[in-house]
Design brief:
Layout lengths: L9 E5 L14 E6 L16 H9 L4 E2 L9 E2 L2 E6 L5 E6 L13 H14 L5 H4 L3 E8 L2 E6 L6 H4 L10 H6 L8 H4 L3 H4 L9 E7 L3 E6 L12 E6 L3 H9 L5 E2 L4 H7 L5 E16 L12 H10 L2 H7 L4 E2 L22 H10 L6 E7 L3 E2 L2 E2 H13 L3 E7 L2 H9 L5 E6 L7 H4 L8 H5 L5 H12 L3 H18 L2 E14 L6 E3 L3 E3 L6
Parallel strand pairs: 2-11, 2-12, 15-18
Antiparallel strand pairs: 1-13, 3-4, 5-6, 6-8, 7-8, 9-10, 10-11, 12-20, 13-19, 13-20, 14-20, 16-17, 21-22
Length: 524
């Protein structure tokens, strides 16, 4: 049996004044305003950011799913059932015979095989959901049955299957647009441009367009096999900031302001036409400090990295969010078994200065902090960077801030070119391996981006991935957290709560800690 450890808190608070009827209330499309600037592609085989999770959950489906009302339970998706061999190496999925794509064609085992093999052979970031979990092969047993074989037992694999990256695409449509699952798909697949503007899935909505830094449009899938949803469509409309998003909702030009900050939430209080929806996420904002000699910087010394960790005013950072955040000790969020907040760093400038002196740099040093755009918990990256700059200066560490556009920042980060960054991590599935598999190994995940090679952390990650006993696994996770705290490579700054402002006419809205939103049950 698999266990998924997570927590979810969804609170709805309604405040009142001046009646107002939103202009969009008469329409059937939902307008969602927010910051959607992280999109690089909407091809499920290549996308590895956050906004694509919203889009792909609405337009595609996976074999299995985890619903917001019970994050500990894996439920059927496109597969009506699945079984696991006694040795834990084979997973057999039986498709629901009613499942069909937006085209009206049935979802078949060959579509599943093609989608997963294409994902693997494109060799993009999301292919790690297969490679990091010992994927060996996928074969078609019959029209409705696929068998997946793993190299080693992976207790988390059923949870991994719920990740949007493992969505099922209609093979015939993708191939017609230049897609392929051949071994050289990373060089020969040309479906990306089409998939950036269209979808080939079975979800409740269909992608009809993406204009970078402007909007993403979805329309209702009239052929949705579970029954057409209430909304005629969904538009994700990019705004410069949370205040602009709120203004759109307040005057009826949008229905939801997604992921606003505490100050913006305060502006909504007292308006009877608006509702605040607050959800506890598993999203982490972190500072990453490379331990590698490659950069020829003092941070290769663990004492310097620990000094950086002690120099941070964590309470001040939480205050920037208006208190809508918490903080774990390492890259394992609160709510996941083994995440112990008692182990986290707290500010100690004397300790920071002592460690710098022990490292032979009592007068401190200078380096660059790299950041992209966007905000977490309503705090823009540049505001957080300025806060860290001031904190570090008190310990004698002089920081220059280099802010880049989000695509440029992500490209450089993935190319292992940045020694110290602020970045964020949102889960694609709900198991501890969503963090341990990506922040542990020298050759993969985010740890590769920062050139981290800490053998003890990598060893614990392997043990955690293979352990079937929940109690033993939790002990290993606690040891994993301790090892990360000591290494001080990934330093969590906050675990955000998500604040959405809704028009009072929006009904059935649900926050999900992975997909952020569930549009299929929404009406207005």
């Amino acid at each position: 049996m698999r266990r998924v450890f997570a927590c979810l808190l969804v609170l709805a608070l309604v405040f009142g004044f001046a009646a107002h009827v939103p202009a969009q209330a008469q329409g059937g499309a939902l307008i969602v305003a927010g910051r959607f600037v992280d999109v690089i592609t909407l091809d499920p085989g290549r996308a590895f950011e956050t906004t694509n999770l919203i889009v792909h959950h609405a337009t595609y489906e996976t074999l299995l799913n985890i619903n917001a009302d019970d994050l500990s339970k894996i439920v059927p998706g496109l597969a009506e059932s699945y079984s696991i061999s006694e040795d834990g190496l084979e997973y057999t999925f039986v498709l629901n015979p009613a499942a069909k794509f937006a085209s009206g064609n049935p979802v078949t085992a060959e579509d599943v095989r093609f989608s997963w093999t294409r994902l693997l052979n494109i060799k993009g970031g999301p292919s790690s959901y297969l490679t990091d979990f010992g994927f060996k092969s996928i074969e078609v047993v019959d029209e409705r049955t696929v068998k997946v074989t793993l190299e080693t037992p992976q207790p988390a694999f059923a949870s991994v299957v719920t990740a949007p990256a493992l969505s099922v695409l209609e093979k015939a449509v993708v191939v017609a647009q230049g897609g392929t699952d051949a071994e050289d798909a990373d060089q020969t697949d040309t479906a990306k441009d089409w998939l950036d503007q269209n979808s080939a899935g079975s979800g409740p909505f269909i992608l009809t367009g993406w204009t970078p830094n402007s909007e993403i449009t979805l329309v209702r899938n009239e052929n949705y096999w579970r029954g057409a949803v209430a909304l005629e469509g969904v538009t994700l409309r990019n705004t410069n900031d949370a205040s602009s998003a709120l203004q759109l909702v307040a005057r009826g030009d949008a229905d939801i302001a997604l992921g606003v900050d505490a100050d913006t939430a305060d502006q909504a209080r007292g308006n009877a036409d608006l509702t605040l929806n607050i959800g506890q996420t598993l999203n982490l904002l972190y500072l990453a400090v490379s331990p590698s000699d490659y950069f020829n910087l003092p941070i290769s010394d663990v004492r310097v990295r620990q000094a950086i960790a002690y120099a941070i005013d964590y309470d001040g950072i939480i205050a920037l969010t208006g208190g809508f955040a918490d903080r774990p000790a390492a890259m394992l969020p609160l709510g996941i078994a083994g995440s112990d907040p008692a182990l986290r760093y707290s500010r100690d400038l004397d300790k920071a200065k002592t460690l710098l002196a022990e490292a032979g740099i009592p007068d401190g040093f200078a380096m660059t902090l790299y950041i992209g755009g966007g905000a977490t918990a309503g705090v823009p990256r540049e505001v957080l960077a300025a806060k860290l700059q001031a904190d570090f200066a008190e310990a004698g560490i002089q920081i220059e801030i280099n802010q880049q556009t989000s695509p440029n920042f992500l490209t450089a980060f993935r190319a292992q070119e940045l020694p110290m960054v602020i970045s964020a991590w949102t889960p694609d599935y709900l198991d501890a391996t969503m963090w341990t598999s990506f922040f542990s190994k020298a050759g993969s995940g985010v740890s590769a981006r920062i050139r981290m090679d800490v053998p003890r952390i990598a060893e614990l990650a392997d043990l955690i991935a293979a352990e079937r006993d929940a109690m033993v696994r939790e002990r290993l996770l606690t040891e994993y957290v301790k090892a990360h705290v000591e290494a001080a490579v990934f330093i969590p700054l906050l675990q955000e709560q998500y604040i959405d402002v809704l028009s009072k006419d929006v009904k059935g809205y649900v926050f999900h800690p992975v997909y952020l939103t569930e549009f299929s049950g929404v009406s207005k």
